[in-house]
Automatic annotation (TrEMBL):
Keywords linked to the UniProt accession: Coiled coil
InterPro entries for the chain: Phytyl_CoA_dOase-like
Coiled coil: 283-310
Name of the molecule in the record: Phytanoyl-CoA dioxygenase
Origin superkingdom: Bacteria
Keyword Coiled coil annotated: yes
Pfam families: PhyH (PF05721)
One annotated GO molecular function: iron ion binding
Organism: Pseudomonas fluvialis
Length: 343
């Protein structure tokens, strides 16, 4: 299947997800699952791949992504950057995904990749993923992505933590500007138990998910892992708001010339960096001048102390002169006043 039927598109518009059917043959499933385990365990090293350990249970307690986990571990949650892996890259560029992006972003639009990764719930463990939406300010994009695909590498069942969704919830739009995890109030309001649908899936089968669809997944108490490939595709003109940069183009072609405002931002950034360098140089000069003045102050204080000591010594010396010696000039002066001085 290279394209979705019109009925599938109507289902997607109504529900915010649609089943894509079988996308991978059994041999490919085994190869992809093995590659994910090799990258996570360190058997195969790719410096462009990032990994996240699965600590089990609490989503908020998860560690950040790293370049390497403990050697041999199967307790990984995420293997991301798969567009840099030669085995996974053809899956990232699957023609079904290209057709989906052309339908949702327009055939004229280039398509870029936000992320491509393996999401794993290790056997007997797994992390609870709360109700959330894949969009909002937390993603730091200048527009929201609309396309996420999800392909099971193991059977995804209720027993091992399959995806759970609220059908049609994408039509609510983003429930907060920040996006991502729902507030307790929104979860209680929009995710009642009687509306929750478990999306069980056979290995090799895929899903198309609207990024605004409310979804979650539980832990995996079973004896089998639940691994899945997932990729999020963007309108290729999307920029990261923190950098102004585009993302890797997967389908189509993007004019590499930056927009005028981005060029101006780079000019302003260069000017700010130059000003910062000048300010740092001036600050270093001021610090040197302060040190010089401190040295001068020290010399002045030392000289002042020596003067005080000299003055004290003179005062002490003057206080020990005999009274007669100090009175003699007075008699001479009185004599001169009386006219008795020598002629």
């Amino acid at each position: 299947m290279d394209r979705l039927s019109e009925q599938q598109w109507r289902d997607f518009d109504e529900n915010g997800f649609v089943r894509l059917g079988q996308l991978l043959e059994p041999e490919s499933i085994v190869e992809f699952a093995r590659r994910a385990d090799e990258l996570a365990s360190g058997t195969l090293v790719n410096p462009q791949i990032q990994l996240q350990l699965d600590t089990g249970g609490d989503y908020d307690a998860l560690p950040g992504v790293v370049s390497q986990l403990t050697e041999g571990t199967r307790l990984y949650r995420k293997v991301q950057g798969l567009e840099h892996d030669e085995l996974f890259l053809p899956l990232v560029r699957h023609p079904v995904f290209e057709g989906i992006c052309a339908r949702l972003y327009g055939p004229h639009a280039p398509v870029s990749l936000f992320r491509a990764m393996i999401m794993n719930k290790p056997a007997g463990q797994g992390t609870y993923l709360p109700w959330h939406q894949d969009g909002g300010d937390v993603w730091a994009l200048d527009r929201d992505p609309l396309v996420t695909v999800w392909v099971a590498l193991d059977p995804a069942t209720r027993a091992n933590g399959c995806l759970e969704v609220i059908p049609g919830s994408h039509r609510l739009g983003l429930l907060s500007e920040r996006g991502s995890t729902l507030s307790t109030e929104d979860a209680e309001r929009h995710c009642p138990a009687d509306r929750v649908l478990s999306l069980e899936l056979e290995a090799g089968h895929g899903l198309l998910l609207h990024n605004w669809l409310l979804h979650r997944s539980g832990i995996n108490p079973s004896s089998q892992p639940r691994r899945a490939f997932t990729a999020c595709y963007l309108d290729g003109r999307t920029r990261g708001v923190l950098t102004g940069n585009h993302f890797p183009v997967i389908f189509g072609r993007l004019d590499p010339a930056p927009h005028h405002y981005v060029r101006q931002l780079h000019v302003d950034l260069a000017a700010l960096r130059h000003a910062h360098g000048t300010a740092e140089h001036y600050a270093h000069d001021l610090e040197a001048e302060v040190e010089r003045l401190r040295a001068k102050l020290g010399e002045a204080e030392s000289y002042a102390r020596s003067l005080e000591q000299e003055r004290a010594a003179r005062l002490l010396q003057d206080s020990t002169v005999p009274l007669q010696a100090s009175a003699a000039p007075r008699r001479g002066w009185l004599a001169r006043l009386r006219g008795d001085g020598a002629h």
